[in-house]
Amino acid sequence: MSDKNRENHVSEQTITRPAHSSGGQAGTDRLRPRIHPRPRRGWLNDPNGLLHYEGRYHVFCQYNPDSARHHRINWAHLSSPDLVRWTEHPVAIAPDRDGPDAFGCWSGVATLDDGVPTLVYTGVQQEGGASSVVLARSGDADLDTWSKLDDRGAVRTATGMPEGEGVTDVRDPFLFTHHGHRYALQGAGSPDGDPAVLLYDAEDLDDWRFLGRLLDAQNVRAVDLAPAEIWECPQLVQVDGRWVMLLSQWRWVDGKHLLSGVSYLVGELVDDSGALPFRFEVASGGVADTGPDFYAPQVLAGGEHGAGAGPLLWGWSWEGRDEVLADEAGWAGVLTLPRRLRLEGERLVVEPAAELEALRASCTRLGGGVLHELGDLTEVVVEPSGTDVEVVLVTIEGEDCGRVETVLRLSAAAGLRVFIDHSVVEAFCGDAVAHTVRAYPAAEQRWAVRAGEGTVVEAWELDAMDVNYRSE
């Protein structure tokens, strides 16, 4: 469990310091992450359009290139051959003044439609207005140019709002294949109503047919595991032979909307002779990330990026600092590290992608029972033990010298890997889900770790990822 912001004090003699740390030397912004690639500046939120194409991973995301605030959303585009070296591409899609996406190009996915790279996303024409599913296709190998127009010069729209469903919000299309047939999901609900996941026949990507509700409030188990007024960003993928659904939980509390976390459901798609071709039977579920700063994940299904590879997931980690500070920095929001998904029985296990080990530079073995200062870019590896591990910020000078602020405290019973990247911390708990939290060291603060006596801890200094930013 997390124990953020708990404070205590230690003396200078109880802190061990590394010989050097290169993590804080990359660039001029000490708080900007170095292994969480993102566009050079601007606002970033939901990962979108994950695609492995022509030997490269393509990751799109919600993006405002003009400021560090959420407004007039475009899609940014990054790509990598190996999840370590990245290239920033031109903006993929942007709102068209008179189009169905005039108010924003909201979340969606990427797919290959008869071999043609295609973006499938929510378009909203005006604030508070109805949504539609818009398509954009690319004909170049680098996926730098996209067209929303069909052969007649009209914007491609696959479907609009379903009639008679009693929902005010429908968004975030997701595609999957079952029994060789392509289907689509959309998240839905209302601020004063109940959540739903809508199912469509999307075999013809340009013309969807609404089938009904795959999941709604009548499924008591689902609502208990993922309480919300709107289920956003539904994902449905196979993990180790089971179907896993991810739901981001949009809540309406005291007249304000709240993004209250992400849950997963494990179950089966059972053939049905009723109104739907199948139903989703929920067997178990839980929280997909135990941290406070994780939302709207998207999954690249296994098999779409290499034989035998399991599903890959990215999520959005928002800022926990004042918007004015983000304005001054010129950027807000990061995507999480790429994560692999697997199941142990009915339980989801989330692990860092193995490719990230290529970032390891040098290793220091640390003793337990002592507070060890770390660099701003470090991976902490803890062998299984019966103790907890704390990641903290320690003040090293000034009148508060020795003050310790706990950012997270987690059990190391199944082992632990913690990635510290300037203002992002991602912890992977051996046989469980991840824990994502943001924290912002002041100039006089340093990252540090403390484990119990006898615990084996390694601290890997990491190299920054190589990001080839586009010229401005």
UniProtKB/TrEMBL annotation:
The record's SMART domains line, in alphabetical order, gives:
Glyco_32
Q: What is its EC number?
A: 3.2.1.26
Sorted UniProt keywords = Glycosidase, Hydrolase
**Basic and acidic residues bias: where?**
1-10
**Pfam families the record matches:** Glyco_hydro_32C (PF08244), Glyco_hydro_32N (PF00251)
From the UniProt entry, list the residue stretches annotated as the region Disordered: 1-42
Superkingdom, taxonomy of origin: Bacteria
Kindly give the PROSITE patterns that the UniProt entry links to this protein: GLYCOSYL_HYDROL_F32 (PS00609)
Q: Does the keyword Secreted apply?
A: no
Residue stretches spanning the membrane: none
Biological process (GO), any one: carbohydrate metabolic process
- Domain Glycosyl hydrolase family 32 N-terminal, by residue range, is 36-352
Gene Ontology molecular function: beta-fructofuranosidase activity
Ranges where the Glycosyl hydrolase family 32 C-terminal domain occurs: 414-445
PANTHER family from the entry?
Answer: BETA-FRUCTOSIDASE
Q: Which family does it belong to?
A: Belongs to the glycosyl hydrolase 32 family.
**What protein does this entry describe?**
beta-fructofuranosidase
Source organism of this protein record: Zhihengliuella halotolerans
Q: Write the lineage as a comma-separated list.
A: Bacteria, Bacillati, Actinomycetota, Actinomycetes, Micrococcales
